[in-house]
Structures are given as structure tokens and as C-alpha cells.
Design goal:
The complex is a heterodimer of chains A (about 220) and B (about 230).
Chain A lengths: L5 H37 L3 H16 L2 H13 L7 H27 L2 H9 L4 H31 L11 H12 L2 H34 L1
Helix pairs in contact in A: 1-2, 1-4, 1-7, 1-8, 2-4, 3-4, 4-6, 5-6, 6-8, 7-8
Chain B lengths: L8 H4 L1 H35 L2 H15 L3 H15 L5 H27 L2 H9 L4 H16 L1 H14 L11 H12 L2 H30 L1 H6 L4
The chains are: A mainly alpha (about 220), B mainly alpha (about 230).
């Protein structure tokens, strides 16, 4: 097909599989680290608040490829033989936790303050107020931006090509070197990325519209 | 575990690192304004243009926003070479950045145009301003000022995204880092320094863009209140 054999398209699909794997690892890791970051960002403790804000500013001020390199070389100086997948997953976790933490902080703060006050009037403890009153409402607000950020995660896994992780971009690069059909190969790769990202973007937008309608 | 840091490469590779910083700054500075202009044009076209133009712009925006920058860069760089147009990696990088930033700022500016209160346009109409005057004097300044924080974030993200351009042999800061580590084998130390340099660049860019806001928005300068 268009000067590229079926086997070679299969090679692209293999790469796409690893892109999805890395995205999921990044999202799960980002959730595990990002949730405490979000909580620390809204905490009243001076230290937690400052430290988490610094963390977010650091990660957001450094390009993802550089984070990948730092992790890749940083883990190996401890004598572990790093495989590119582990390094890429750690880097994606760092990256997405900072952004998700910031997104979720906004969602928690978007719950009206009167909800906290009402909870206090009912003599609920801080933890009870947070778990039973604030969190369920914040979760609903958080769905659209979180799905939207998933698109960013999928797209940004492509930066793992700098440390030689075999993902969709890497497989496309190898194929291009072998066949030199850049238009066909990179269009195919772009279409695969689009097929993953576009439905997510649409979902995010639909969730957002529904949320607005419910609030209106 | 005792790891001894060795930052002596800062001395021996100083000129390479400075060149890398310069190239990163150049890529950013050259791409910001055309990207913003393209984005604004697309936002206007999508809001007020004829049907076919709206569709075309929507396809452009969705295509760019749902595929990674690096694939766009490869497509452009290798694709143009196959077509026989040799424009050089730096130009290819700038074109890719402009196209990419254009799509993102188009969405931001569209939100800005839509957020302008209707009364502003009615007031402008009452003053018998022409369509062109309304756009340049009423809509554009207000829309830009409303979404300026989002634009600043977008431009900083774009600056960070230039780090991928070493993949097409534009030896910006990240590319220089790779060269230095392949000679010194101090990958961790080198990239820590590179990370700090990027942090500094991001902070500086943020300050510059805030300064630019003071110059560009007369209303903000005189009243010092958020819109």
C-alpha cells in the first residue's frame, strides 16, 4: 500500500501499542502522585503548600525530553540497568502528576465555599467534609479537564523517542529511515495518534457541555 | 551510594552551551508573533468567515491539536526534503512551531473574542465605527487582554517544546546537552544543568511577556486592574 508493505504498517501498530501502554502508565502514576500534590496545594500548612507549589513550577518549567534524560541518566547512576520503558514511565509520572495536581487543585477549589461551611454546621470533621461533601462534587467537575489532559499525555509520550523508547514515533522514525517514504509513514503515524486523541478530545468537550448544562 | 558531581564541562563546553541557549531563544522569539498572528486570523476566520473557511480551519485546528508536535516536525522536515525543497532544519523547525502554536492560540483567541460583552460591540456600532475599526480598536485588544494569561502559558509551553528540535539536527539546548554527555559521559550532571537553564529561560520569558503586556495594553497600563 503506497509503497509501504503491510508488515511495515504492522510495525507501526506495534509502536502504537507501546504508546498506549506508556500513556496508561503515565496516567496511573500521575494519578497516584498527582492526588497528594493537589491536596498539598490546597492544604493550610505553609510547608506543604510551598513545597508542592515549587514541585509543580519546577516540572512545568522543564521540557519533558529533558525530564526524560534526567531520569534516564539519573536512575542509571544508582547502578540499576534502566530500560527505556521504566525511565519513560517515571518521567511521564513526574510530568503528569504536576499538571494533574494543578488541574485537580482547581477542581477542588471550584466547589463553592458554602459547601465547606454547611459541612461545618453539621459538625462534620475536616476529613468527613472532604470525603463526603467536597470530593464527590469536585470529581464531577474534574472529569472534562482530566480527559482533556489524557490527550496531552498520549501526545507527549512521543517525546520518549529521545531516550530511544520504542513507541509509535520511534517506529515511524525507523520505518522512515528504512523506506524513506516520509509522507506515507508520518501521515499513517499521525492518523493513529489522531484516532487515539480525537475521541478523547470529543469526550472531554461533551462532558464539559453536559456539566455546564446541569449547572445552568 | 556516593555519586560525585562533576560540573567541569561547564567550563570546557561553555561556548556550545551558550550557542544552545541562543538557538532556543531564537526559535522561541521568531515563532511567537507569527504563531499568534496565525492563531488570531484563524480565530476570526472560524467565527466570522464563510462556511467553507470555518470547516477548513476546524480541520486544521483539530488535526494539529490531536497529533504530537514531533510527528508534525518529521512530516514537514522529511516530507519537504522528498519534494526537493531544501529549507534547512532551522526554517523547518520555525514553520512547524508557527503552525503548531497557531492552532493552539486560535482556540484561545476564539474564547477571547466570544467573551467580549455584547454591549461593547453595540456601543462601537453606536459610535458609527466601521467593521474594521471595531475589530482593531475594540475586539482585538480586549480579546487579547482577556486571554493573555492563557497565551503566556501557551508560549512558554512552545518554548519548552523547542527542545524536541534536536531530533531534526537543530542543535538547541537539549541537543547541545546530548552532545556534551556523549563526550563526557556525565549525562545526569549535564541534564541537571540543562534543566536549570530551561527553568531560568521559562521564568525570563514569563517576565518578558508580562512586560510586553504592560506595553501593549494601554488600558491595563493606565488603570492597573484586571479586565
Amino acid at each position: 500500500m503506497l509503497g509501504v508493505s503491510l508488515d511495515q504498517y504492522g510495525f507501526l501498530v506495534q509502536g502504537a501499542f507501546w504508546t498506549v501502554v506508556l500513556s496508561l502508565m503515565g496516567f496511573v502514576g500521575g494519578t497516584i502522585v498527582g492526588l497528594p500534590v493537589a491536596l498539598a496545594r490546597i492544604s493550610r500548612g505553609w510547608f506543604l503548600c510551598r513545597a508542592s507549589s515549587l514541585y509543580v513550577q519546577f516540572v512545568q518549567g522543564i521540557p519533558l525530553p529533558v525530564i526524560m534524560f534526567v531520569v534516564y541518566f539519573g536512575v542509571s547512576i544508582y547502578g540499576f540497568d534502566v530500560n527505556a520503558l521504566v525511565a519513560a514511565a517515571i518521567a511521564m509520572t513526574l510530568y503528569s502528576s504536576a499538571y494533574l495536581g494543578e488541574i485537580w487543585k482547581g477542581c477542588i477549589q471550584a466547589v463553592p465555599k458554602t459547601q465547606w461551611e454547611a459541612g461545618e454546621c453539621l459538625a462534620l470533621t475536616n476529613l468527613q467534609r472532604f470525603i463526603y461533601i467536597i470530593l464527590p462534587q469536585a470529581l464531577r467537575i474534574a472529569v472534562p479537564p482530566t480527559v482533556g489532559f489524557l490527550v496531552q499525555i498520549v501526545k507527549n509520550t512521543s517525546y520518549s523517542v529521545v531516550i530511544g523508547f520504542f513507541d509509535l514515533t520511534y517506529s515511524a522514525k525507523i520505518l522512515n529511515n528504512a523506506t524513506f517514504k516520509p509522507f506515507v509513514i508520518f501521515t499513517a503515524a499521525a492518523l493513529i495518534y489522531f484516532a487515539i486523541c480525537f475521541p478523547l478530545s470529543r469526550y472531554a468537550r461533551r462532558f464539559e457541555l453536559r456539566l455546564h448544562r446541569r449547572n445552568a | 551510594m556516593d555519586y560525585v558531581f562533576d560540573f567541569s564541562f561547564l567550563e570546557s563546553f561553555r561556548s556550545e552551551i551558550i550557542n544552545g541557549v541562543r538557538l532556543t531563544v531564537m526559535l522561541t522569539v521568531v515563532s511567537i508573533l507569527p504563531g499568534f498572528a496565525l492563531g488570531t486570523a484563524c480565530a476570526v476566520g472560524r467565527l466570522y468567515g464563510p462556511r467553507w473557511l470555518q470547516t477548513a480551519i476546524t480541520i486544521y485546528i483539530e488535526a494539529i491539536r490531536n497529533t504530537p508536535l514531533i510527528i508534525q516536525v518529521f512530516w514537514l522536515f522529511f516530507g519537504l526534503t522528498v519534494l526537493g525543497a531544501r529549507i534547512g532544519p532551522f526554517n523547518a523547525a520555525v514553520i512547524a512551531l508557527v503552525i503548531n502554536t497557531g492552532a493552539y492560540s486560535a482556540e484561545i483567541m476564539r474564547a477571547g473574542f466570544q467573551a467580549i460583552p455584547k454591549g461593547q460591540l453595540e456601543a462601537a456600532n453606536c459610535l458609527a465605527m466601521t467593521r474594521r475599526q471595531i475589530f482593531w480598536n475594540i475586539q482585538l485588544p480586549q480579546a487579547a487582554e482577556l486571554v493573555y494569561p492563557a497565551l503566556v502559558s501557551q508560549f512558554i509551553l512552545m518554548m519548552l517544546a523547542t527542545s524536541i528540535m534536536s531530533q531534526i539536527s537543530v542543535e538547541e539546548l537539549t541537543g547541545v546537552g546530548y552532545q556534551v554527555q556523549s563526550i563526557t559521559f556525565r549525562g545526569f550532571d549535564v541534564y541537571l544543568v540543562i534543566a536549570v537553564l530551561y527553568l531560568a529561560l521559562a521564568t525570563m520569558l514569563r517576565l518578558c511577556l508580562h512586560g510586553a503586556a504592560q506595553l501593549a495594553f494601554t488600558r491595563l497600563r493606565k488603570l492597573r486592574t484586571p479586565l
